[in-house]
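Morning. Coffee machine broken again, so started the prediction first thing and wrote up yesterday's gels while waiting. Chain of 361 residues, entered below exactly as on the submission form.
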Amino acid sequence: MMGHLLQSFFSLVITLFFLGSLLTTLIWYMVDNNNVEPQRLSPQKKTTGTPQPSGLCKGCREVINKVIERYSKTWKKQEDNYQKFRSQLSSKCHGFDKAIITQANTPVGAKLVYDGEKKRTLQVTPEIFSTFAKEHPFSNKIWDTCAVVGNGGILTNSSCGKMIDSAQFVMRCNLPPLNEGYGKDVGIKTDLVTANPSILLEKYGSLMGRRRPFVESLRSYGSSLLLLPAFSFGFNTPVCMRAVYSIEDFQSPTRPVFFNPEYLQSLALFWRSQGLKALRPSTGIIMASLALEHCANVHLYGFWPFSNHPHGLHALTNHYYDDRQTKKKFHAMPAEFELLLQLHSQGVLRLHLGDFQSGEK
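Came back before lunch.
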């Protein structure tokens, strides 16, 4: 009898304890919830209403206003300026013949000089030669319209996808995601996409283990060209070769090709002569350069180096898919943008900084 009473007593105590804990937690939550700041939405998320200016760095508003003042002037292609710049670029860099390594321009026994390590060379062996494109994939070909798509956060909620996909030839940079709900803003059409070896290193373990995830990630690019800088730095070569072998082994329709380091070196010197002081041009300006030699009308999307949107000044992520920062040691993004803005103002190419749901054409 006594044992039964004790058991009932302890059950009552435990029940009261849990009820007290629950009540205390509820009171704490109600009080704390009234004092906590509301969570800020990530700039990547779609929000209703007008985004508010956020996180402006000192002096950035003035700089952005000056950019918009220059950009907002009615754009018209200036054929003479375009032909003059294209001629200068072609005469210095020879993108038609040298941008991509082929079996025609780089035979067995040829010596490749790495553009990122001038003292490093590589003699082309039959095995390496077999990975080269048999001929230049677009030698002496001029497309009417080309879209070069950077990965800037300015593309978020831009609705530029349809306009990008309407271009005759579409170039993309560094294996960007297309299918995860981004298509409306960035499009899905791809004719050429680059791959920085650092992506292969960090995301796919340098392709030392399972390679299927890498090959499957290429599906969204279809049968596009995959442009690899295999001969820029010594550590690039083996991982880029593994990428090529993976594509072959899994019978992917993607067509891997290699940047010619001689072309990249010439291009770096060309842009240095135009005032660019960065150690290396970014992938974006390299693609824009390639387009200027091969396309009559060049349109650039996603090229905006500032952390605030030009229209409304709301905060932007660095890329439309993440906020990872660029390596400023190598790339001078604002300086590159200034050069591209000059070409826009001269009617050589067209930068798109607006969004197409608000009427940009």
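The CA atoms of residues 192 and 225 lie 5 Å apart. Going to sketch it on the whiteboard this afternoon.
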